[in-house]
Amino acid sequence: MKLSQLKAGQSCIIESFTDAFLKLKLMEMGCIPGEIVEVVRLAPMGDPIAISVANYTLSMRKEEADTVIVRMMEDGSLKSKV
Description:
The protein is an alpha+beta fold.
């Protein structure tokens, strides 16, 4: 599943990336495989999206979020983190 497919409030774990250039850029901002991500909010037209990752909020374009492959958490929340 792609990060861009999640709705506000859903959480996931980053698995991999489909774009090598964006992979490096996103990893420098804390989006590393195994990291838990929560979709904080979506713009009215769905682009950009705000995610919570590595204890801060990051805004990214839907096009960028399309390159992030994620795995949904069992209950869709951060409670599974512990």
